[in-house]
Amino acid sequence: MRTVEMTCIVCPIGCDLKVTLDDEGHFVSVKGNRCPKGEIYARDEVVDPKRILTSSVKVVGGKMPLVSVKTNKTIPKRLIRDTMSIIKSKKVKAPVKIGDVIVENILNTGSNVVATRTVKSDE
Ligand code: SF4
Predict the structure, then answer these.
(1) Is any ligand 1 atom within 6 A of the Cβ of residue 9?
(2) Tens-digit pLDDT profile for residues 47-97
(3) Phi-psi label, residue 9: left if phi above 0, alpha if psi -120 to 50, beta otherwise
(4) Domain for residue 26, yes or no?
(5) 63 shares a domain with 108
């Protein structure tokens, strides 16, 4: 058995977690979480860490050349490089509205890449 310390980043409280793992590195228990989301976060961090990804996408014919985007759900950290490749290769045509889906179900993660601001057309 061993203990790993981490900070829960699910909400701004930022609870200090002590996660106990067995000899094979499997999750056993967690202490320090103020709510059940902390246990889910700790389990995910041990098994398959996930993050919200933020970036930007090129806009064609817009008042701005880029629109900020983010995944609307967490995606596995191991897929961030491949996700960024897709986002970098993407172009959208203005106008873009906040909340528009730029890439649906990226890499079959169940997460959509959505615009986080509006970019009007330059016409
Ligand atoms: S354990 Fe709960 S209260 Fe603590 S940081 Fe995570 S989500 Fe927030």
Answers:
(1) no
(2) 899 999 999 999 999 999 999 999 999 999 999 999 999 999 999 999 999
(3) alpha
(4) yes
(5) yes
